[in-house]
Amino acid sequence: MTDLLGGSGGAIGGIRPVDILPFARPTGLGGHGGGAVEIAAVNDLTIGTHGGIIVNGQAGEDAHKGGGGGSGGGILLSS
User: In 13-29, which positions are buried (b, 16+ CB within 10 angstroms) versus exposed (e)?
Assistant: First the structure.
């Protein structure tokens, strides 16, 4: 892996980038992308039975035209 990057954000809901519709909240915002985590160990690297590393993207907002969810991020483990 050459680059460790976080996930990209989701798009706003609607047909065009900015939809003006006769609704209070016509378009939902896109969700945030997941983070980027790098864990490097000199010796052993152990993740316990109930342990976890999570870099999920956020869900898009609900609306008349809901936003898209953000993509997950990246995890790099090395020892």
Answer: bbeeeeeeeeeeeebbb
Do residues 18 and 54 make contact, with C-beta atoms less than 8 angstroms apart? no
Q: Closest by alpha carbon to 39, among 67, 1, 75?
A: 75
- Give residue-wise pLDDT tens across range 37-61: 999 999 998 989 999 999 999 998 8
What is the rounded distance in angstroms from the CA atom of residue 56 to the CA atom of residue 6? 10
Q: Are 26 and 20 in contact (CB under 8 A)?
A: yes
DSSP letter string, 17-79:
SS---SSSS-BPPPPPPP-EEEEE-SS-----TT-----PPPPPPPSTBPPPPPPP-EEEEE-
Looking at the DSSP assignment, which residues form a beta bridge with residue 65?
A: 27
What does pTM read for this prediction? 0.70
